[in-house]
Specification:
With 136 residues, this protein is mainly α. The protein is built from seven helices and no strands. It has two domains: 31 residues, no CATH class; 77 residues, no CATH class. Helix 4 packs antiparallel against helix 6. The two termini are 28 Å apart.
């Protein structure tokens, strides 16, 4: 039996609105779904070489971080990790080679950084809801 699609209202911010066009064939809803589908597809293909300790350090360093707008938020993840290592010695807390992790993060492309931001946000959202989500 096919599942019924759930309709939700979405506020379209200026960044997304700039990507949408008046199209007599594809509605704005269809365009948003196409963009979301492509984004999801890109993230599903990401395989980062991070240990559990490195991922824990990243999540810890980004607790409370806001990653919008993306052009600041994605590189901001690296800055947050670097600051947390320098100022809070999170590399010692998590038994991680801090400079090597920062170098690894600086070598990521935008899709890899987006995957990490999604992971961090999903993790902390799960913690707020009373559970720790599993790593993808």
């Amino acid at each position: 039996m096919p599942t019924k699609e759930k309709r939700v209202g979405v506020y379209v911010g200026p960044e997304l609105a700039a990507r949408l066009v008046d199209d007599p064939v594809r509605s704005r809803s269809a365009q948003v779904n196409t963009l979301a589908d492509r984004y999801t597809y890109l993230l599903a293909g990401v395989r980062l070489e991070l240990s559990d300790a490195e991922l824990s350090l990243i999540r810890d360093a980004c607790n409370g971080s806001v990653f919008q707008p993306a052009q600041i938020g994605l590189p901001g993840l690296v800055w947050s990790v670097e600051d947390a290592i320098k100022l809070d010695a999170l590399d010692k807390k998590w038994s991680v080679d801090g400079p090597a992790l920062v170098a690894k993060l600086r070598g990521l492309d935008r899709v890899g950084l987006a995957w990490l931001v999604e992971d961090v946000e999903k993790f902390w959202s799960g913690v707020s809801a009373g559970c720790e989500p599993a790593r993808d």
